[in-house]
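Why predict the complex rather than its parts? Because the way molecules touch one another can change local conformation, and only a joint prediction can capture that. The input here totals 931 residues.
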Amino acid sequence: MKKILIVDDEENIRFLYKTELEEEGFMVELAKNGEEALEKLPLFKPDLITLDIKMPGMNGIETLKRIREIERHLPVVMCSAYGEYKQDITTWASDAYVVKCADLTELKTTIRKLLGLL
Amino acid sequence: MAAHPDSYDLLKSIIHLSTSSIHIETKLDGMLQTISDAFESDRCLFLRPDKINENGFLSRLTSEKKTLWVEEVSSFNKKEVLSEEEDLLCPSFVCIPLYDETSSQGILYIGFSKSRRFSPQETDLILLIAKEMEEVIRNVHLHQKAEQTISDLTALHEMGKAVTSTLKLEELFELIIATGLKTLKAKGGVLRVLDRRTGELEVKCSLGEYHLNPLDEKIAKRVFHTRTPFSLHHFSGEKPSLSILCAPFLSKGKGFGTLTFYDKEADPPKFDERDFQLLLTMANQMSCAIENALVHYETSEIARQHEKRVKQLSTLWELNKALLTTVNFERIVHMTLTAITIGDGLGFNRAMLFMVSEKKRILEGTLAVGPDSAEEAGRIWSTLSQRKGNLSDLIAQIQPSPETNSILNSIVKGIQIPLEQEECILSRTVLEGRPFNIRFPYSEVGIESESTRSYRTDSHREGWLQIHCERGCSLGSEVGCYVSEHLSRDPKVYSFATMPLWGKGKVIGVILVDNLYNQNPIADEDIQFLSMFTNQAGLAIENTILYRNLEEVHQELKETQALLVHQEKMVALGELSTNIAHEIKNPLVAIGGFARLLEKAKPVEDPEKQFYQAIIKEVARLEKVLDDVHTYTHDESLAFKEWGLRHILEDSLAMVSEGVHFEDIQLVKQFAEGLHKVKGDYHQLKQAFSNLISNAYQAMNGKGTLSIRIHPILKNGSSFIRVEVEDTGKGIDPENLHNIFNPFYSTKDGRLGLGLPIIHKIILSHQGQIEVDNHPGEGVTFIITLPPLAGGDSEEGGKAKEQPLKIVLEASQ
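Output of the joint prediction:
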């Protein structure tokens, strides 16, 4: 069973993603900010991370940099309300960029692609 | 002694004669007769000094003042007697020299036919009578002298009166010559006065032909330079006799002229010492008068020049006042040329203006003012002469309309002369920055500001005049030909002047003036006046040009400012929307996400399922609005690549139509083959076109025809690709038409539609253009033109300059 770490400051978003992704058959762990995500990373050892960009404290971009220092090849999907940093981020660090949407089809498809499930 | 005259009676009759008022000759005759009668002499004579021969014995007697008594002629020493004097050698005779204080008056001679002795009584008596005769002659001489002096004084008085009677130089000179002629009884005279500018003596007045004789000038010069009077009498040889008197006019020790008189009206025509003295006195007296008159003349000359200057200045002032009434280029140019041609202004017949175009390096005909024909000229002049009021008002009131339509104006406006064409006077006026006065076909005179050095070209005139004009027009260009052609005159006899128009430190144009109709010659003075005026006009014109540029810049600035304000609004909106959108979007995603979960969990037949569906649909709509706001307010870096528009449109159509079926909407696609690709961002272009198509579907409310056409067009000489999206909906309310691309504008139903502003923004950032062809009630066509790859691939990912939006409005039928 593939493990996914969901990093988002919005509790309901975490809850929604967890529900949807567990329904898809993934093991899900949650982190409410960058610091927590970095703490949980060595313990949980996820196969993929979804990372929100705009978060209080350590934001998504900073967290992504730190993750890349530890796990160079771990797939990371950036999730943001809008596509404002899409160009920058995808070119240097992340593996995918998904604009948040109530319809999670795109997110799920992206995750499956990155985990080699499609 | 034969008879003893009664000495008392004799003396009585002598004294009687001497005191009588009869003429001197009669008096002397009477006295001689009385002597003859009293002494019974045979001959009694009075010998005048001029009848006495110098070498004879009479002359010796005169010089020695010795009385000769000869009682017996045989005892008289005849050695000294000249042949003509032998006649006087009577047997007995007496010679008594008569003289006054200074000179000899002659000799009293009494001759007797017989020898006789003179008693002491007789000797005394004769000597007494001789004394009396001396007295008579002396009196007469004195009288004559007195009369002469009185007449001289009268003459001088007359002259004094005459010369002070006028201050007019010409009259004065004539008077001096006439009075001098009368006083000196001369046959002719010459008056010369020094010309201060040339330093030469100039003949101001003359009578007779004497001034033509080179000798006259020579003498005058000598007298003038030495300041010494001069007289010459020439009476021998074969040359005609000549008598000259010449005196200098002196003032404060300096000479300023000469006065010469020739040949006395007498025989011989010789002036005497008295005439010479008289001339000197006259010259002295006249010097003052002439000097006064000269000063008066010079003063009035200066006054006249001043008056002229004042008039010119006031004209200039009036003209400048008129120039100050406007900053409009066309008006100021027209006013300038009008001022040059108006009679009260500079009074030229015609004026033409050529402005320098720095960019194109040419002179462009800008405007011409002046009548097309002599008849028109006369008509205009007569109308103008009836007008009243200030010159400045007059010029300011003149409307450019009638004259600007003249043939001349249209000809001049079509003229373009390369600045480098140095054969053309107009170009040379610009290049050399100085005026030219072409007086006649081949006498060109350049006017220097400081010295009036006349200008000559080295090459043969005809050559350079004809270089660019086969007909030899003196402008060396089309101007002369065209200008003269419609006047059917020979261009070779066209006189004109050119004047550079100075802006700030550079020549900004050339003014050409002529007097074609009245043929008045253009004087250097006219050119100077013109120069004074054009200096002002040049600045005024320069100012209007600057003002015009300033206005353009101001306009640009205003537009830029508006753009900046707009962009600032966008930035503000962007920040606001980013903040708000983040706050809204996350809950919205949660709401929508859980609604989907709930909806999925509900069985199909559950009536609550459609409630969840409603939530999902509305959340989707809200998400769309948020995405639109975000797209509009954020300049995302674009990925410009080459795309076929056809491909993008197909994708857009597919995206809009996905899952939706518009059964009653007919889709018409007209895509031209072989279109050029465009450079752009796929997602943005797709968003723009899908928005357009989506709008069209919505406008038709499920029923109608959607036409999409793509074809190449030619615009401003380069090819573009044109996309037309036409619907058959209601069209756009004309009231809203101007605001459809304004992101802050909401329609009457209160909806904030960001669709069209986003399309507008995307198309502009692709250097394209969007137009609206609106037919209210029938439908609307959006026309988008994009530059093809060849023309529009310069700026990779750059933002295109915002271009004005063109909206085609058509009223409903």
